[in-house]
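Q: I'm a student working through a structural biology exercise. My instructor gave each of us a protein and asked us to get a predicted structure, then write a short paragraph describing it. Mine is N-acetyltransferase domain-containing protein. I'm not confident about reading structure output yet, so if you can add a plain explanation after the tokens, that would really help. Here is the sequence I was given:
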Amino acid sequence: MLTSKTIIGLVYLASSKNDKGPSANSQLSMGIIIDSEHQKKGYARRAITLALNRAFKSFHCHCVQAIIVNPFAPEIYPAYKAFVAVTVDHWFSH
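A: Happy to help. First, here is the predicted structure for N-acetyltransferase domain-containing protein. I'll explain a few features afterward.
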């Protein structure tokens, strides 16, 4: 059972080396890790959505990127699908 203090993973936004931080016209990189016990429960999609909202609405950045190495590997493909689904939804809803 999850409580408000249960840690199930990590999501981050980081500015690029050439950027002076989260500000107008900035570019951010995003990453996410969800513990295997909590995968396939929608947590990654929710975390990605919250991070994108924060990036675009609070930090006013113009681009968020994520690099997914070997996206079609069986253990990576669910994460790839989550990123694609959320980013497409986010793109067409704004």
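A: Here are two points you could use in your paragraph. The first helix runs from residue 43 to 58. The chain is about 35% helix and 20% strand. It's a good idea to check both against the output above yourself.
Q: Great, thank you!
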